[in-house]
Amino acid sequence: MSTQYKIGDLVLAKLGTAPLVGVVVYRDVKRDRYLIRFSGVQQDYYSADELTPYSPSKKA
């Protein structure tokens, strides 16, 4: 069973050769894909297996 992400979750998605941090903005239930937005103009669909949860390190 793959991880279920919610809208607003931060994820790492591999785009090209480097993983980028993006945010889940939509889930296409029919295709079982997530729309990940990286910037105001860059977004793409990914399956849950292509994503990794991201949590920023907390430095004081």
Task: Please give a handful of descriptors for the protein shown.
mainly beta, five-stranded antiparallel beta sheet, SH3 type barrels, globular, 60 residues
Describe what you observe in this structure.
With 60 residues, this protein is mostly beta strands. The chain has one domain: SH3 type barrels (Roll). Helix content is 0%, strand content 48%. It has strands at 10-15, 18-28, 33-37, 43-46, 51-53. A five-stranded antiparallel beta sheet has the order 4-3-2-1-5, with no helix packed on it. Strand 1 and strand 2 (18-28) form a beta hairpin. It is globular. The protein starts with 9 loop residues before the first strand and ends in a 7-residue tail after the last strand. The model has no long low-confidence stretch (mean pLDDT 88).
Short description:
The chain is mostly beta strands and 60 residues long. It has strands at residues 10-15, 18-28, 33-37, 43-46, 51-53. A five-stranded antiparallel β-sheet has the order 4-3-2-1-5, with no helix packed on it.
Topology (elements, then pairings):
Blueprint lengths: L9 E6 L2 E11 L4 E5 L5 E4 L4 E3 L7
Antiparallel strand pairs: 1-2, 1-5, 2-3, 3-4
Organism: Levilactobacillus tujiorum
Protein name: DUF4176 domain-containing protein
